[in-house]
Amino acid sequence: MSKNRTPDDEPQEAAEAQAPKIDLSEEELVALCKAHVCAKCAVMAEAEDVKLRALADNENFKRRIQRETDEVRRYATESVLADLLPVLDNLALAIEHAGSDPACKNLVMGVEMTRKIFLDTLKKHGLECVGACGEAFDPGVHEAIGTVCQPDKEEGCVAQVAQAGYVLKGRVIRPAKVLVNKGQEA
């Protein structure tokens, strides 16, 4: 016997000498351990549950961040476009007030062309004008500022537009201020 050996070591050494040598890779050893020991272990099951919940929370977080990022990108120009709306209003007022004065004909034509180019450019960025006369009143895109009685128009439709409204990719930037037809007076 060597000096570090104890009598208790002899049965263990005898068992090791009789046991066949098994050569397993690291992955095989882990899989074997999980299959025979850890499958019945409550701590392992709880750890697996915690891991799955953490993975699910992480995926939900990624999806939410992606959705928020997409929305920020989609509506990033909203404040700039909203600041440009008074320019469109002033161009429309210039056209309206010039009327049919022959002296202003060329100036009005230039303002109309400028307004059209401006609207086309804004449309490329997703801005659309809402609130035309004759369309049904929709409180989602219209703001009623009063009522009028026009027998030639349907009840509940837009009779007159006081200020155009605008929608950016489905989101109302400014509702159209309209007068709604209430039908025939009693």
Automatic annotation (TrEMBL):
Keyword Coiled coil: yes
InterPro entries: GrpE, GrpE_CC, GrpE_head
A single Gene Ontology CC term: cytosol
Subcellular location: Cytoplasm
Domain of life: Bacteria
PROSITE patterns linked: GRPE
GO molecular function, one term: unfolded protein binding
Coiled coil: 44-78
GO terms under biological process: protein folding
CDD domains noted in UniProt: GrpE
Sorted UniProt keywords: Chaperone, Coiled coil, Cytoplasm, Stress response
Region ranges (Disordered): 1-20
PANTHER family attached to this UniProt entry: GRPE PROTEIN, GRPE PROTEIN HOMOLOG, MITOCHONDRIAL
Quaternary structure note: Homodimer.
Protein purpose: Participates actively in the response to hyperosmotic and heat shock by preventing the aggregation of stress-denatured proteins, in association with DnaK and GrpE. It is the nucleotide exchange factor for DnaK and may function as a thermosensor. Unfolded proteins bind initially to DnaJ; upon interaction with the DnaJ-bound protein, DnaK hydrolyzes its bound ATP, resulting in the formation of a stable complex. GrpE releases ADP from DnaK; ATP binding to DnaK triggers the release of the substrate protein, thus completing the reaction cycle.
Family: Belongs to the GrpE family.
Protein name, entry field: Protein GrpE
